Structure formats: C-alpha cells, structure tokens
Amino acid sequence: MPEEIRLNSEFLVLALILFTPVAAHNYVDGSSGLKRGVHVQGNRVSYGNFAVDKFHRLQVSVGSSSVVSNYRECALSCVNNPPCSSFNVGSSPRSDGKFRCELLNEDKYTANPGQLVSSSSYHHYSIKTPCSSWPCKNGAKCIPNYEHGGYSCNCHPGYTGKTCQTVSAAEYPKTCAGVLQKNPSAMTGYHKVDPDGVGGMSPFFVFCRIESGTAKTEFLHDTPNEGAVDGYEGPGTFIRKVSYVNSLSQIEKVMSVSTHCKQYIRYDCSKSMLMANYDGLGGPYGWWVSRDGQNMYYWGGADPGSYSCGCYKEENCYKYSKYKCNCDSNNLGWRFDAGYLTDRSTLPVTELRFWRYGK
C-alpha cells in the first residue's frame, strides 16, 4: 500500500514512494516515474516510482548526504529535493541503526558508462523510466523525462530518428574524386571529405588537385624539396622527420578507400651510399621510415624489402651489374635515386635517414 506522509506545512504532501525490487540491470517499464507538486483536489501531491540495483552504487558527484532511518525516508528526500533523480542508500545500518543516504543529480542513464559499480555497502535506486529498456540504438545515450514518462535519445553523429536507428545520408564525399563527381565545377584547393562515412571519423579537409577532368588527393608536408646532408658519418644518422598537414589516421582513412596510392621519393648523392650491403661495403646506409615506425630498406620504384632502388628493377643503375642503386657507386659525381613508393600498408613516409662520407 502507498504510504501517506504528513509534513508540517501549509498544505498536505502525499508522497507515494513505489518501489520495484528487481535484479540488478533488469527493470520494468511503466508510466510516469515521478511527479513533483501536482495539485489534486486542492492538495499538492508528489510521488516517485523507483527501481533498485541491489549492492550497486552510482559513483557520481553527491548532491547532498544525510543519515536516515530507512530507504523510504531517503526516497522521500529525493522526491522532495529537485533536481535529485536517483540515490544511493546504505545496504546495512550503521552502529547507530541509521543508513547513509546520498542524493544524486544524475542517474545511471545520464552518467558515464561504468559509473554504476558493484558495492557491498550500498543499494542504488533510480526513478522508473522507459530508458530502463535501453531503447536508444547505435550507442546513443537515453535522456529520461521523468515527469512525463518519456525519453529522448542523444544520437552520435551520423544517426537520426527517435531512437537513433537511422543512418544519416553522407554529407561529404569520401575522396577528391567524389568531390569532383559531386561538383564538376570544383577547383584545385582544400575540400572536405568523409572517407569512412557517417558514424566514423569526423569529416576533414584535404588538398584536391583537380586538372583535366581528374581529381587527386594530395597530402602536403613540411619537408622541403631539397635539404643538405653533410657531416653524418654513421648509417642513418641524418634524420629528417616528415610532418603532414593532415594526421596519419586521416591519411590512412583516405588510402583505405582509394583505388591506388603512391608517394614520390628522391635522393641526390655524391659520395653517399644508400643500400650497398654487398662487396664488403656494409649497409644499408640510408632508408625511410613507415607510418608505424618501421625502417624500410628499399627505395622508390623498387620492391619492398629488396634492399635496392628503382633503377635496379629497371636494369639501368650506374654500373648495373655491380650496384643496386645509383648512389651506391659512392663516387664524387652527382647521381640520384628516385621513384614511387606504392605499398599503402606502410605509407606515408614519416622519416628519411641518410649518411654522408662514404668509403
């Protein structure tokens, strides 16, 4: 039976504290779980309908704390003290026979995941709400409306609908090719793309080079076209880090939806070897570093892991029968090794490592 509690005030307060004892994380839906100060036949009435998570405690900021004679008294205090929406109460009495009562301005639906924890010292009571059936989809947060018995869903980007059940239409194309397809008059410059679509990484800007009816996505970096390498006598002791305008995760997302990817790399040399590693020359002396920090011992145009340069694959290196890179001739004349890297699992280049003063 509901309890009628008379308070010393100018009007009657009928507090109907309805408890629904259920196993942890199992709740029964119902109509409005809370009413505060509604007028019934000239009287002001408040009531709360609570469900219990036994031996659990919601670890959020405590609005107020007190000691009570029983859990009903704690529930009544919550109903009569907005904005309380749940409470923790001691699972067993203290030495004086009282129970600790913590009024909370959050509940397990609006709190962060994991804040409702097992506790041998507390039971947690939350106001009954349709959120107890977890109606919101795709990771959305359920926001209870206690006094109207309703709820709303706070959808993640990319989802819509009452319960966030519908995937939103993609607003941005995945790559620069999509930019041109969507807008044939688009021009070279920065455009926003969304490689993994709604619900994934937030859309971001990339540089699109649009020429002769084609579009390419380019990732600009801070490494100059030329830089001197001199006075570094140990293999790989010269280090040039490469920083990109876009993050590596953004670059990786674009590569994952692109038909092909490539990055041009070139080294001009005089008395500075690259791969060597034959005829007692030792090595490798120079290499590049992948996006996950691995040393890559091959150069543009060559096969991964081949300890060679593109000229060796094309059979046109300087003194081809002896050297696998033009720079491995190690003489004072200026030569270069260059070509495209195409293994998208290792791109982009994040470091260049060289030396100077060969044998």
UniProtKB/TrEMBL annotation:
GO molecular function, one term: calcium ion binding
Signal peptide range in chain numbering: 1-24
Domain EGF-like residue range list: 127-165
Residue pairs linked by disulfide bridges in the UniProt entry: C136-C153, C155-C164
Entry keyword annotation includes Iron-sulfur: no
SUPFAM superfamilies xrefs: EGF/Laminin
Protein name per UniProt: Contactin-associated protein-like 2
